[in-house]
């Protein structure tokens, strides 16, 4: 099943697809294990859970927020069961809870809320930062391939970049770096990427949001690692020991975007410490419309161990979650 899943991951239509097995019960059809990951890609679990929840809400309601907790790593070899609970149905808002179960254990929990849109209400948004447009930026895999042309690349790094290029080329989401380590006037470091879905079907608006939820987990918590100066090739306090999502949230402020077009992901990291980091994200259309706001906290550990306690045991470990 794992090989089949890796092939299906190349298409966003099969990445998000779930099978309805009862009124409120759904089952994954494919699961993807990213390079050097502990478990199934978190964005895929979020998006499949949202597809399940969206199928259990009247079409008059539009997804406006989702709050997720990742409890256990998921294996790509066993389907995930998504159990949707119809928590509340009001006149303006509807709430759904989704439990994702694998091998009898809850691996993921999500609460999402849907609203009847009120476009006549006043609005406000932060402006989109000034960045090069997508046509002026290169694909992430092209950028890595250019690095490999340098003769002094370490063999281990060469092998890693080759694997990343292969994975990025097969990904259903295309990424272009718009600005790396951009420093705002108030001293805040930001990372900015253009992203869009490759070969996207003509999905209706509710499922465009599910695709965006998938992409919102790409290159997100890694911003905290970069700001801390952690790399895979580092040592001790500069080497990444773990990068793993704890929770993830999204708020939508547009119901009509098309992810077949490039969207700008603006990411910053307000705080990191104690083996954790929190990142914020804003997602814009090319025209500057703020589509969604994202937030995530994750385990961000360097390859260092905690002090030894009186009983001779380590107080912390870089190897366990």
UniProtKB/TrEMBL annotation:
One of its GO terms (cellular component) is peroxisomal matrix. This is Thioesterase/thiol ester dehydrase-isomerase. Belongs to the C/M/P thioester hydrolase family. The lineage of its organism: Eukaryota, Fungi, Dikarya, Basidiomycota, Agaricomycotina. One of its GO terms (biological process) is fatty acid catabolic process. The keyword Transcription does not apply. Pfam families: 4HBT_3, 4HBT_3C. InterPro entries: ACOT8-like_C (IPR049450), Acyl-CoA_hotdog (IPR042171), Acyl_CoA_thio (IPR003703), HotDog_dom_sf (IPR029069), TesB_ACOT8-like_N (IPR049449). Residues 181-300 form the Acyl-CoA thioesterase-like C-terminal domain. CDD domains: Thioesterase_II_repeat1 (cd03444), Thioesterase_II_repeat2 (cd03445). Residues 32-115 form the Acyl-CoA thioesterase-like N-terminal HotDog domain. Keywords: Hydrolase, Isomerase. The keyword Protein biosynthesis does not apply. One of its GO terms (molecular function) is fatty acyl-CoA hydrolase activity.
